[in-house]
Amino acid sequence: MLAKLRGLDPKKDFRKTAEEYSHLAAQAGSSPAPAKPVAAPAPVPAEKFDWDALRKPADAKFLGNLASMRGYSLVLIDWLAKLGLVGSYKGQVAFPVNRDGNIIGAHVRFSNGKGWFFAPQGIANSPLIIGDLACATKIHAFESQWDAFAFCELAGWHTTGNPADEAVFITRGAANGSMVGSMIRGDATVYAWMQNDRPNAKTGIVPAEEWLKAICAKSKCVRVVKTPGGHKDANDWLRAGATPADFADALTKAELVASAATPVASTGGGSGAIIPSPTEWLEQQYPGLAEKYGPPAMLQTPKSSKALPFVKTLNEDFLAATMGSDGNPAEPAIYLPVEKNFYQYLSADGIFRLKSPEDLEGKVSRILLDCGRACPEYDVNSLLFLHRRSSVLAGVSRRAKAILKGSDDFSDGDLGFGAFHGSQADTGSSAI
Q1: CA 78 to CA 86: how far, in whole Å?
Q2: How confident is the model at residue 105 (pLDDT cuts 50, 70, 90)?
Q3: Is 90 a member of any domain?
Q4: Which of 95, 167, 295, 407 is the one with CA 20 to 30 A from 124?
Q5: 75 and 205 together in one domain
């Protein structure tokens, strides 16, 4: 057969035919030559990346499928598309990656829905932003764009536009929390919308908690917005039927957490964690009160290098204001001079209830206790004992009569609560 293929006569060209067979045998016994490596495609220069080419395939059908998949309204998705935030990369949803004002690539969802990748290959992650970070003093931080879009949906940004002093900051993953504090204004408050992550089965680490720690490490003021435990995240909550009132209530109850306040040298030689002073802690818990009533406390540093700073004096006006509409807008207390009584709005009952001065003093005492426990790098004995004596707290409740004073004709309309019956508060007893 070989001789025929080579045009040889097996009898006349026997030697030549044998050489051909021998050559083939040698080739068969040897390893094939290694294939030349294929070079990876060179990254696309930022100025050549065509994001508009990804926006065009994101037509009405594509956007409708996206809305249906995540439980959003078509109006929201259309708004995001008009902002230039939604694209289609080979049929998969994609979001822009911006650097120095230029879109350098896309963050793309894998076709199986399990994970994301960047295109072109090799570009670095950067956050997805809605709003102007240079103007925003209220930052809504999210790990995922899905949760951020759920917030925009229920906050109504797609119909009213985002407020000039607010912005959404999407870190694209739990490992990127540190980028928040490095990019926002120094006076901004971060509202961190945490996901309800489960601990890693091997390490026990909770990704959402690590994300929050990274945000706190570089941000001056951070509040945690909690999603109800029955839901994985904000988008899951939306799909389960959350309302705008639910999200607004979660924001109102956002808890202030440890932040990057002025560093205090650690006395224990430990981790070097940043610990707030009692003054800083009170100002963080009740933002805005210091501007109106002055610093909450005066610290004194002992002459001895071995002694710790301590709280010498407390600002009674500041402490009294913590119970009013400035410090506790959800359940404010007021004082009616005509009746010589304090009343506090109780959200659970939907009405104002009569409160004694001792009730309010007990709340202030608790605030000072929490403050002392949050400031272990200070001598807090004065906070825990001296300033929590009844004689001291009585001074706060006396000042509260002026700070929390309501007009003689005060009614429920003054604070927007359906609380009073006529001009008289409900004086029924309630548990404190």
Answers
A1: 9
A2: very high
A3: yes
A4: 167
A5: yes
How far lies 375's CA from each of 23, 175, 223, 282, in Å? Answer: 86, 28, 18, 11
Residue 306 lies in a domain: yes
Task: Give the mean pLDDT of 274-291.
Answer: 85
Q: Are residues 390 and 322 in the same domain?
A: yes
Whether residue 335 is contained in a domain is answered as yes
**Inter-residue contact 224 to 266 (CB < 8 Å):** no
Alpha carbon distance 382, 214 (integer Å): 33
Q: How far apart are CA 107 and CA 123, in angstroms?
A: 10
pLDDT in tens, 350-396: 888 999 999 999 999 999 988 988 887 788 888 889 999 999 999 99
Q: How many CB atoms lie within 10 A of CB 365?
A: 17
Mean pLDDT score across all residues of the chain: 82
Rounded Cα gap, residues 322 and 285, in angstroms:
9
Q: Please check whether residues 225 and 341 belong to one and the same domain.
A: no
> Do 356 and 219 fall into the same domain?
no
For residues 160 and 218, state if they share a domain.
Answer: yes
Domain residues for 342?
293-414
Q: Residue 10 and residue 235: Cα distance in Å, rounded? A: 79
Structural domains of the chain, count: 2
- Residue 82: in which H helix or E strand, if any? helix 74-82
* Shared domain check, 197 and 54: yes
* Within a domain: 157: yes
In the numeric block, which tokens belong to residue 169?
A: 């900051």
Q: Check pLDDT > 50 for residue 129.
A: yes
Q: What is the pTM of this model?
A: 0.54
